[in-house]
């Protein structure tokens, strides 16, 4: 089986890798360099807490692939299962957390509830005013700069043709397959996988499929390096967007943070998301509530990235509803980093075997919530 994968972010590179492992002949076409879209901008959170319940089976599958990543890819992509803590500062948010924990349990996801003394003992310095927290010990983070190039290199070693900096001029369906005309040559295959990220709806539209998607940029920042004190990824349960920050400390000591600010609007052409410095103070106020010691540190860089947000905040994954041999995996709504390896594994299974053991039905392109 021949497959063209269009778009070389985490979804495209992971899919190319797992397709090749299943024996497919794969060409991945990326118009820039692999991993330089939303993927490189990611905060790097490998988080299942708070995820839409129907995403949990895919998130579990992905968590297993993350655990194997170093062995599969022959490289450390800095996956660390440091745990993921979400602090709680008010009774309403505590009720929300408990309701989520209850609902997630039948989906195979167990959240620990921590009281104030557990937080102080296990995670000193985090949220001194917190009344409780949830803790997911097997979640954590990885390095968003490393993972897509690592999947691409591993895919290359399995024979995948990775074509970068290729301007794609035309994508056509011939009745029995696909033809992609690019500045780096013409490619033909019986299957096409659309992993074009925030631009994925444009590719779908070529085949008569409309997806309501908006390009937005979450805003990130990073501090100067500090002594390493914060081991888990830290977030919050809150009903107020103004407090919704999250952070993690990388092994070199810098603290990466995001959230608590509206996502910046992004024009898909050229698709460069630029952080807005005016939003930094509100982010920092929320960050300092999580870790007061960060009040005195310097922020050395801010950035954003172009991500596709689908109207119902779920990705589009699975078969095309119009064109045999066409598959989609795009529009990950700010949650795709954790899902990436699982998406690649699941899409490869679906394309090569015609079925997927992980339920993807809620993500199909013709679901009612996406109808005009
Ligand atoms: C700032 C930020 C922080 C985030 N933090 C997290 C987080 O902590 N945890 C989490 O789970 N998720 C997070 N996300 C979301 C996550 O990063 C994305 O969901 C994920 O990386 C999407 O991967 P992708 O491969 O679909 O898209 P991308 O990485 O954007 O890749 C799509 C690729 O397709 C290429 N392309 C587009 N059109 C064409 C074409 N016509 N021809 C050829 N190539 C094309 C693009 O150039 C691009 O390289 C974050 C996102 C952002 C922006």
UniProtKB/TrEMBL annotation:
Keyword match Isomerase: no
The keyword Repressor belongs to this UniProt entry's keyword annotation: no
Record protein name field: Monomeric sarcosine oxidase
Gene Ontology CC: one annotated term: cytoplasm
Key words of the record: Oxidoreductase
EC number: 1.5.3.1
InterPro entries membership: FAD-dep_OxRdtase, FAD/NAD-bd_sf
GO molecular function terms noted in the UniProt entry: sarcosine oxidase activity
Source organism superkingdom: Bacteria
FAD dependent oxidoreductase domain residues: 2-350
